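re: ur msg from earlier - yeah i can do the flavin-adenine dinucleotide complex, just paste it... oh wait u already did. ok heres what im feeding in:
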Amino acid sequence: MGEAFDVLIVGAGMSGLTAARGLAATGRSVRVVDKGRGVGGRVATRRISDATFDHGAQFFTARDPRFLALVEQWVAEGAASEWFRSSSGSGGNPRYRGTPTMTSIAKALSAGLDVVLSTRVESVRRVGDTDRAAWRVRFADATEVEAGSVILTPPVPQSLEILRSGEVVIESQTRSLLESVEYAPCIAIMAVLNGPSRIDPPGGIAPKPDDPAFPISWISDNRQKGVSNVAAITIHASAAFSRENLQRDPKDVADALLSAASPWLGSDAIEHQLHVWRYARPTRFLDVGCVTVCASPALVVAGDACLGARLEAAVLSGWAAASVCTTSL
Ligand SMILES: Cc1cc2nc3c(=O)[nH]c(=O)nc-3n(C[C@H](O)[C@H](O)[C@H](O)COP(=O)(O)OP(=O)(O)OC[C@H]3O[C@@H](n4cnc5c(N)ncnc54)[C@H](O)[C@@H]3O)c2cc1C
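and the outut:
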């Protein structure tokens, strides 16, 4: 048997990192594991040659007072800033971004935490008798650790697969709830340009928000945003286009999206990459902070599947999951 922790958190996205911070602050031993090479999950930044791209979440809003206080802390630390304001509301509502890139906020959250990257969790299995039950977490390399509580923050279908692999019994109402969550995919194109784009300040645009047939939902200019030193744009395909083209040849998909984006490009795309977010945003989510699969030992599902398709929801869900584990330990 490997190491043991009070809490093992699967996923170093905004939800998992928030839960970890909350629990570590109460003195629990907490480990976060993520299959990715960096922290942030769908808050993601990638480099191509000299260019840098935010290719997941582009900005975020803050409505909950507790989350707003966290955002203000990030702003004070230089990890986030206001990017622009919506046209609605008196004076508009702030849209924040990480500085210099979106992943800066995930890095700020992860500071001082025990985070292990490039580690895929395969299963979570209940072990021990009723008095001393715990969770045994198995990784892709066949190593294992034991934890008093587990928080799963991957998209729900991936969390259910981890539970299925460990033969965790899920009460039927809880299973139905989890299985009701639905996601839309998003195909992202990152393109390096040989000159400036035609995107107006502040550097991000929803090109034809009222036309559901238009294949692009968002284009941003990473240089204008201050993310990239060279001209670099991120294109997000609409949910409908992404769904219809998931299986298509990536080259044809990239050509179609770059062609649709041409009025905003202004320069030639000299290099590009495509990334598929299979579970980009929940389109059907739960109206609860997190889902308790087992109360003792605690096994909790959290993430933006609870409360909504927004970075703020992921953070609020992380706090809710931390609170369930704090009570159970
Ligand atoms: C293209 C795109 C654009 C978006 N735009 C916005 C926006 O403008 N504003 C906004 O507020 N929100 C936006 N969002 C949504 C926002 O990014 C998410 O709501 C939020 O980041 C979700 O965080 P999370 O922690 O719940 O999940 P995630 O960020 O998905 O974190 C889950 C983590 O679990 C890890 N994981 C999965 N399976 C395993 C496993 N088996 N073992 C180990 N680790 C595993 C993953 O690698 C991932 O890091 C966008 C999302 C996408 C994809």
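cool cool. Residues 311-328 form the longest helix (18 residues). ping me if u need the other ligands too
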